[in-house]
Each structure stands twice: as C-alpha cells, then as structure tokens.
Amino acid sequence: MFERFQQEARMRQEGRLPPGQALTRRFPVLHYGPVPEFHPETWTFLIWGEVEEPLRLSWAEFLQLPRRRVVMDIHCVTRWSKFDTVWEGVALRDLVDAGLLRLKPTARYVIQHAAFGFTANLPLEVALQENFLLATHYNGEPLTPEHGFPVRGVIGAIPGREDLKVTYFWKGAKWLQGLEFTQHDRLGFWERAGYHNEADVWKEQRVQWG
Ligand SMILES: Nc1nc2c(c(=O)[nH]1)N[C@H]1C(S)=C(S)[C@@H](COP(=O)(O)O)O[C@H]1N2
Ligand SMILES: [Mo]
C-alpha cells in the first residue's frame, strides 16, 4: 500500500498522473457484455470506408503486418491509471507508410468495430499517432481473453511525448474485428451512453452534458 502511494507521488511529480486519476498496479477488466470466442480459421479483420481499396485479412495475414512495441501509461475513466504498460501490435501509421493502407483524402474519422456490435470512434489524426495500436500482446504475452484477445485497440500516453493527444482507455475496442474510415464522425458505444466524445485525459473530458 505504502509503495503504491510512493509510486503515485512520483508519477504526479513527473507530470504523468492526469487530474482525478489514481495509480493501480492491477489490470482491471471493464466491458459491456460477454467475452467472445476466437476461431483462428474463420477470424477476419476488415478495413473499409474511405479507403482506395478495402482489406480483408485472415489471422495469418494480420500477423504478417508490420509491428511495433510501445510503452504507454493508460488512463481509465473509472479513475485508475497504469504506468509503463508494454504493448505490441500494428500501428495504423505504419500501414499507411508501407502503402498497405491507402486512405482517401476524405477519410477523417476511424470507427473501431468489435464483437457484438461494439464501436469506438477516434479522429483520424489521433488514430494515426504512435500511441494508438492494434495490439495483440500485453507485457510480452498474447492478450488474455478478457483484455481483448486476439486484437484490441489501445491508446495511452507515451512518456515525454506531450505532443500526442491522449484519450481515456475506453477509446480502444477489445475483440477488434475491423476499422471503418469515415468522412463524418459517428459516436461509439460509450460515447452514445454519455461519455465525452473527445475524452482528453489532461482536460479531464469524462462525460458530455446535454
Ligand atoms: N469490445 C469492447 N471493448 C471495450 C469495451 C467494451 O465494452 N467492449 N469497454 C471499453 C472500456 S469502457 C474500457 S475502460 C476498456 C477496458 O479495458 P480492459 O478491460 O482491458 O481494462 O475497454 C474498452 N473497450
Ligand atoms: Mo471504461
């Protein structure tokens, strides 16, 4: 307990603890609905909308995409923050840079589509940042089923990168099945329930009124 407070004080001092947050060393599980099963033979990942060419990837193909490892602080709207979490997976900007994903100039938003119709929305420029990952691994291990196996969106803060927009953790969809690029914004599941559409952790944009 005492150690947790010491760590939290250090994070606050380093400017890494957003307002209204507390440090946790656990990894809470939060979502609406059940945990889906994963069938590698039938699993597909779809990319569609404002793209030059829609993509349909099998699990084997998804694993061939360029990958990176990102260390981030994650901040949940329920007020826990977890520091120095290690994620591995696919960065959208790498797909664009490699020419694997060709966006139309009209693409301005990204809707993550997950199992059971769950969605989460982000502006394109945020989804193209290095702190948004289609993650398959957490702390060196494949994601656990309850944390989104086999793929989830993740967004967090990269220490020292104050230039990156950081949203609360709900903007990363677990059990991700596809990405839709759109011209206009469309509220996701939690955003429709009253969570803030921008969700900037430093501005403490938790809920939206009216
Ligand atoms: N598919 C799906 N993804 C989801 C959610 C959900 O209900 N369904 N909830 C979000 C919310 S509110 C949070 S806080 C994080 C929690 O991720 P965790 O369970 O790995 O901590 O997942 C997000 N992704
Ligand atoms: Mo949440």
Descriptive overview:
- The termini are far apart.
- The mean pLDDT is 97.
- The longest helix is centred in the N-terminal third of the chain and has 12 residues, at 2-13.
- A hairpin with a 4-residue loop joins β6 (109-114) and β7.
- By secondary structure, the chain is of the alpha+beta class.
- The protein has a single domain, classed as Sulfite Oxidase, Chain A, domain 2, CATH 3.90.420.10.
- Strands 1, 4, 5, 8, 9 and 10 form a six-stranded mixed sheet that branches.
- 14% of the residues lie in helices and 30% in strands.
- It is globular.
- It has five helices and eleven strands; from the N terminus they run αβββαββαββαββββα.
- The structure holds the ligand Nc1nc2c(c(=O)[nH]1)N[C@H]1C(S)=C(S)[C@@H](COP(=O)(O)O)O[C@H]1N2 and molybdenum atom.
- The ligand Nc1nc2c(c(=O)[nH]1)N[C@H]1C(S)=C(S)[C@@H](COP(=O)(O)O)O[C@H]1N2 binds at residues 28-32, 76, 114-115, 118, 147, 169-170, 172-175, 190.
Task: State the gist of this model.
By secondary structure, this protein is an alpha+beta fold.
Question: What attributes characterize this protein structure?
Answer:
single chain; 210 residues; Sulfite Oxidase, Chain A, domain 2; 5 helices; binds molybdenum atom
